[in-house]
Amino acid sequence: MAATSSSSGSGSILDVADEELSYGALLGRGLDMGVLMAEYLVRTGPDGVRAMARAVNLATAQDDDFELVETLGAYEHLKSAVGAKQSELACTLGDVVAADRIGRGVRVKNPQWGVGAEVGLALHASQRSGTRFLNRARILTEDLPCTRQGLREGTINSEEAKLIVREVRRLKPVNRRDIDRMLFCETHTCFGQGGAKLREMIRQWALILEPEAEVDLEERAMRERHVEVFQVDPCRVRITGMFPLEYGAALCQVMAREIGRAQAAGDPRTQGQIAADFFFESLTGIGDHTNIPVEVSLVMTDRTLYQGHPEPAVIPGYGYISAARARELFAGNPDNPLDSWVRRLYTAPGTGDLVAMDSKARLFSGGLKRFITLRDRYCRTPYCNGKIEHLDHVVQVSRGGPSTAENAGGRCRRCNAAKEAPDWEEHTVPGDRHTIRITTSSGHPYTSTAPPLPGTRQYNVRPINPADRPPRRE
Ligand SMILES: [Zn+2]
């Protein structure tokens, strides 16, 4: 190109007055816009990619239905190409970091330590998701050339690529490559028929090529058995689990037998209620559901407790409950007042920072872990919602960090390990609420502030008086 400035001053290549530089003239000269934009991206790096995102936001849609559908599909192609590019970048990052550390003689046994965490933070995801992304990217880039090309060309989208990687990841690289090749020889039969059929086809080929992989899968099912509890709303939790097939079958049989026995005896409960009660009783040994001995850590303000204020309270690890329910819990069971023991915690007015437990003496006589768990509630790494498994020194003891609440952060096991990557720095920052400043190995800064607790200004809201509500539309 002879020049890059626009003579019209409008900033749009479409309005350039100079015939030589107009959009039409450039296309007429056979200029490939893809090549032009690629050159722009190479020269400008991340700034150029952000400019492309702005361009996508600024581009107005046409009002022709055919064009609209075409544009929708074209953006899906763009997403696929971006997915392939991100995989490539994550792998290159791993290689660059490893080469640098081996060159410097640090972390040579596992030179990619912490790269998954760095990838996760860049993608606004947890470290676990970042590591998974990196592992998928490795398989895609090294063992599945056709899938990667299909993603770049928009033949398949990111979801299909993810499915392929998931199905072949336990196979040997040579078999991954065979399946990759077969999928794209039969593109018309493999793609466009839905994920279930694609998965079935890959599994069928995997069983022929590497039947022993199924044995590995059985072992994994046993190794990875687990049960998890999630809060779904202020009053309920969902309990999910993953079991080997034979465990699952046995559980179903026992549950069905129990339901049948109760119904035959004229039990008025629904099948679901019988199963839920049986599950609870079997695990806890408690038959009377109205009298459950619990210790609840309840974080609430004095206004909520004594003045009937509507500000919600928090049960750490589970979430918010209404002020009325918090008062009920605090009151406990009148028939057996010792059954329900509520630990009341204080929050600083305005900032919602947890300032102390019942007393300072208690805090420093072994209550520090409990204090940090209540203050942080989840792992403090940005985007990680992991459970707190480790009480971490923000500035490590080896660097002179003290064992105080200020220098402590709740962390999940993975994030606590990731911060030991070379050049990864963390320190606390003074402010309203406890704040940690994280600088990753690549030098990217992130800030983590403890979540707000009752007492924070944002909770100074009043429910609308029913009389003030606008009339309902008919
Ligand atoms: Zn974490």
Automatic annotation (TrEMBL):
It holds the Pfam family DUF222. Coiled coil: none annotated. This is DUF222 domain-containing protein. Residues 423-435 have a biased composition (Basic and acidic residues). It comes from Paeniglutamicibacter sulfureus. Residues 423-474 are annotated as: Disordered. It comes from the Bacteria. Residues 437-450 have a biased composition (Polar residues). Residues 115-331 form the DUF222 domain.
